[in-house]
Amino acid sequence: MSHTTVIPASTYAGYPAIMTPHQLDTMRARAQRDPDGFWLEQARRVYWHRKPTQAFTGSFEGDVSIRWFEDGQLNVSVCCIDRYLTDRGDQVALISHREGRQASEKITYSMLHERVCRLANALTHLGVEKGQRVAICLPMVSEAVVAMLACARIGAVHVVLFGGFSAEGIAERLVDSGTVAVITANVARRGAKLVPFKETIDEALRKAGSASSVHSVLVVSTSDDPVLMLPGRDYNYHDFVDEFEADFVPVLMNAEDPLFLLYTSGSTGKPKAIVHACGGYIVWAAYTMGMVYTHQPGDVLWCTADVAWITGHTSVVYGPLANGGTTMISDSLPTHPYPGRWWDLVDQYKVTMLFTAPTAVRTMMAEGDEVVKKRDLRSLRLLGVAGEPISPDAWQWYHDVVGNKRCPVVDTWWQTETAGIVLGPMPGVQALKPGSATMPLPGVEMTLIDQQGGAVTGPGEGALCISRSWPGQARTIWGDHERFRQTYFTMAPGRYFTGDGAKRDSDGYYWITGRMDDVINIAGHRLGTAEVEEVLAEDHRIVESAAVGVPHPVKGQGLVVFVIPRKDAAGEVTEQALSRLIASQLGRYAAPEAVYLVPDLPRTRSGKIVRRLLRKIAEGQIENFGDLSALNDMAIVKMLCDRVWGQM
Ligand code: WT7
According to the lineage, what is the superkingdom (predicted)? Predict the structure, then answer.
């Protein structure tokens, strides 16, 4: 790290920074001195029906309980809509761009209020009650945003599901969450491809059978493509919803009532639903987005994330709206139907803040500078990335070519579990270092834990932990609090373990080194290698498998799978078929780079698969394997190298 570039904050002298470096230091010190007072002050960023008098009231010890602002009452849809109706009812809250459509939708705060209320009435009419779960499985259309806010308004808990999941994956999640209603689309267009959303939901509900509690399905028609509708269960969204009254009195929620569940991958195969609570989440969304994406009147924020990820919740919907901003969604792809598609949209909608994943930056970088330089990107004033590591050269390209060296690039580190930005710079206030997500926001107490379990002081490396709760912290794993405790609070007792490793330099900047568990990150999508192995384990022709992540130039990481077929099935299983099976069960992003059929896997004497070695072989680092003395059979190493890299 001795040659890192440092870009001083003064580079962006024209940037409308919201505070001075000194004020930021003061804020940090205040948060440290009096965390409760600090967070109660930050809680005033949102509208409360009853103001909280307590900040954190839980504990990281024992059973672990996370509770914030417990005696406060509010409704999150009011924080995001109603409070802005009087002074900016006519301001655009949501721009929805759809490929292949002439005009985009521009939805003002007043219109958003109307639409959210109609759906709130419709859901109530269907019998959806406070506390019940509603699944939202939609492409990037305005109804997705409306649906989340309508759930919040009636106190229902939304569960946004990724449209790329298989029917099995959706069925499992509908059952696990006890969902009672689903809001979906007939189909979605992804570039030239048509993705059958409704058909997949139908199949999921068939598979779930009596284990499912779903009684109603609302279907948004995104096109003329017809789908089967089951009378009494399925409703055409607009035919049904648009008839309801455009006003709905928000249901009063306790701060700790759940707002949403969001499924994410962990190191075991079973999907886990992270639970976020109304009060803490919305304060945290308003705070983190307000600090890093410092919204000013006239700003248009385009975060390209799908609503089904945490970024889609916090950076697309709740963060911008809680701050009274204008957020944009689009179902476009960066390079389809032609290279530079996103740059044209930035110009067309005068996007001022662009937030995307490093994988998209790398994809667009690969098309060459000319594609960018031909376009007018003067509307941009802030660029952001999140979700996976960005290399210093991709960062620099984004900064120099896209931002024309004018716009700060904010690399923000966070997780489904943290709900909002944890590491990230305040633009125009802090110096930037390409490749580093800078440092924690005020109020976050980050600690690196070394191999002996002690806290690293000063510069060093270790497991990235957070030592004090923050309002947006996940409350639990739905239906499995013990798994929550075990996953996050046992590695470093008394602290939250993120799953990541990191280095801290002498300026206190953090450099993420990657996951320390069996989770890989493909194009910003988290995937547990155990999920892949579980899919394969269900195929009776397969004895065992091992999945590993390898570096990939565009996706960051790619998936490579080693599979032992049963001897009597050797001719039947093909690498292509297994690859298709994984993609169809887990989602298209999980499609492996390679599947290798092998007679055995490297193991220790106790039979444990040596993944470190498999990773090296898959990556091609076959000159230096390190210490192999624990291996029970050395011949397997040569066999695997020959299999992957040809006869040597
Ligand atoms: C994991 C969380 C940003 C939220 C969306 C992803 C990795 C996230 C960064 C970053 C390096 C990053 C971590 C983390 N990650 N942001 N800026 N630099 N790595 O949320 O799906 O829950 O994934 O993404 O490994 O643990 P998620």
Answer: Bacteria
